[in-house]
Specification:
Length: about 100
Amino acid sequence: MLAPEDDVPASLMALCGELEIRVPMAGVIDIDTEVTRLDKEIARQTQEISKLSGKLNNVAFVERAPAEIVSAERQKLEQAETALQVLEKQRAQIEELRSA
């Protein structure tokens, strides 16, 4: 288990809610395949953020939808933004393996 202040080694990562599951990958994975996978997931999260932002920026939706629905959509947006940040960081770490 890593402490928040620990440097995270380059690793495969999957998100399970807010839990990050990591497997060290130096010399174990095909970097090109992993970059392609991450690019697809980054695109998916970017699309989700765009969809949710559009919905939440729609005044009619925010005013007419039940408060719990609006709150749930805001929470989904926050989770998607967090996931995108983690994925972009992961992609940068994998690119560093290329040059190592």
